[in-house]
Amino acid sequence: MFLYDVAVPELSLNNLTYESSCDIPTGARVKVEVSTHSRTGFILGFSKDNLGPEVKIKKIEKIFDDRPIIPPDLWDMALYAGRISFCGAAPALRIILPRYLILPDAKKIQERNFYCDSKNYCRENFFNPIDSERFDFYINELKQGGQTLILFSRKESAKKFFEILPDELKKRALLWGAAGTEKYWLSWLDTYFGKFDFVIGSAGAIFAPLMPQKIIVEDEASRNFIIPPVLNVSARDLAEHRAKFLGAKFITGGRQPSLKTFKDFRPEEKILPERKNIIFTDIYHYKTRNEEEKGIEGNIPLTFSLIKNTYKELMNKNSVIWILDRLGDSSEVFCSRCGEIIKCPKCGSPMRSENDGKILRCKICSQARDLPEKCEKCGFEVLTGRRPGLETLEKIAGKYYEKIILYVDQPEKGSEDDKDNKKTKKKKKPPVKKNSLYLTTRSGLELCDKIQPSLIAWLDLDLELSFPGHDNKLELFSLLWDSYWRGREKNSERKVLIQSRRQGMNTAKFLTQGWSKFLDYELAERQEFNLPPYGHEIELEIEPKASKLREKILDAFFGMGIFVMDSGDETEPLRLNLESLEPLEEILNAVKFSSQKLKITVKN
């Protein structure tokens, strides 16, 4: 009898052990019983657990395949993803494979020839802020031949690239769609059997069963490549791992490189923004109108430079974007007497006001409720908003300009049968019209792909730095860089105006010096504190009820002399930095955790 470790993707469980008298190859599918139900599992290899004779082992009921049916590069990537995310092989296989291959009545597919040579792996970088020039470079790579997988950080970018392909290339290409549909399964099979030479898509396209000689990752520094919620790993990192396994050419591109690429390869920066098009306005020292709205504490600073430059561009029939990262009328509502902040009844987070204060909405879970008539703590009838948001800005901007569009998600109206949920319906953005002033958040930079704004203004850059996390400055610089370059046609001009105080200005001034200067500065700071890409930043989210597991993990790290940041609040995750993941692996193997009680996020 042989004992095998088996991954059951449908249930996303830890590896299970079964026995069989047959020699079953790794990667083959088998039928096993889990809690009286038959499931499809994948053989991971011979079991290494030393199980005593008292342990009852179930038998493998049926062997579906006499050899692995998953391409070796996808199998290797699934095991790699499960290992670096600490979720295990089963959840990774569930995400990577079509559901038709993991259900109890799993479908069979014919074997496909597979070849690779890891020695052929090579690396190339192409960083250019002009989108059209990068797209031309990628099209040239396709024309040179060889099966190619191209990943984009957003679906819209993948679709845009697909649409501009020459006809002779487009008929050989597949735009990768969403998983879980019959169409997806048919596309998966067509790709598996070689009907397409090129696959183009967003992060999920990394799971396409192509056998690429080239893998291209566009906008490689983007956070949009993170695959949530189980894996929490970057499709960009999976793409690099897969390219090394296959011996493929791995190409990274974008408007700027990731820290990892910059650290390892130091790509050359060829184009810098023109200094005359970057306008810095210090809110404290420039002439400023501190606009306020009745019933809301705080103001929105509008420098004379902002007002004048916006007016000039609108008069020339151009489009302008103002960015303020606060939604609603105000960020929070509180009692004017006792100071009690109105919080979400569902998750306890502060709620912002919307629609002239008629609706309160949670900033975390989007739960909505009506504004109470009085304070629920002391009964006082005067409730006040604090920190004005975009809806207040819309009223203020209306004093100066006519054509104003609030470009944020707008709730759809609920049906008559769904009155209770009408405030949390799916949202949509307003239609895009050119030659207008757009008021939006940082996500509104997507407008650059739809219009050609001649001016983008950040109304309070220090607000962007208020979000927690060591990646804050890096993300802010990337947003500023995109503000200047994203969607710009060659030889066109665009101004970026930045309203800030000292803290935000320190980061903004790197905009005129370029990403190479900023990334050098960022790497020096991260090396000192052992932050990515020099180490691993780890978050351990432990179910509050699993207090004993939390204590075991803390004691284990303490025993190794590893510092763990623990707020003392059991609802907050544990945070730590490690040079290597080995201590974490050792501890997790010792405590025998359940994936339902512990979620692990590793940032590289």
Describe this structure in words.
This protein is of the alpha/beta class. The protein has 16 helices and 32 strands. The chain has a six-stranded parallel β-sheet, with helices on both faces. A six-stranded parallel β-sheet has the order 14-29-28-18-27-24, with helices on both faces. Helix 6 links the parallel strand 8 (173-175) and strand 9 (198-201). Helix 1 packs across helix 2 (89-96) and helix 12 (472-485) runs antiparallel to helix 14 (515-529). The relative contact order is 0.09. The model is unreliable at 412-426 (pLDDT under 50).
Write the layout of secondary structure elements.
Blueprint: E1 2-7, E2 16-20, E3 29-34, E4 37-46, E5 62-63, H1 72-84, H2 89-96, E6 122-127, H3 131-143, E7 148-151, H4 155-164, H5 167-170, E8 173-175, H6 182-192, E9 198-201, E10 214-217, E11 226-227, E12 233-234, H7 235-246, E13 249-254, H8 259-265, E14 278-282, E15 288-291, E16 296-297, E17 300-303, H9 304-315, E18 320-323, E19 330-335, E20 351-354, E21 359-362, E22 368-370, E23 383-388, H10 390-397, E24 404-406, E25 410-411, E26 427-428, E27 437-440, E28 455-458, H11 461-464, H12 472-485, E29 495-500, H13 502-508, H14 515-529, E30 536-542, H15 547-559, E31 574-578, H16 582-591, E32 598-603
Parallel strand pairs: 6-13, 7-9, 7-10, 8-9, 10-13, 14-29, 16-23, 18-27, 18-28, 24-27, 28-29
Antiparallel strand pairs: 1-2, 1-4, 3-4, 3-5, 11-12, 15-17, 19-23, 20-21, 21-22, 25-26, 30-31, 30-32
Helix pairs in contact: 1-2, 1-7, 12-14, 15-16
Q: Approximately how much beta-strand content do the residues carry?
A: 15-25%
Could you say which structural class the secondary elements and strand pairing correspond to? alpha/beta
In whole angstroms, how far apart are the ends?
A: 42 Å
**On the 0-100 scale, what is the average pLDDT?**
89
Shape: globular
Query: Could you tell me the number of beta strands?
Result: 32
Low-confidence stretches: 412-426
Helix content: 25-40%
Strand order of the largest sheet: 6-13-10-7-9-8
Number of helices: 16
Q: Summarize the main sheet.
A: 6 strands, parallel
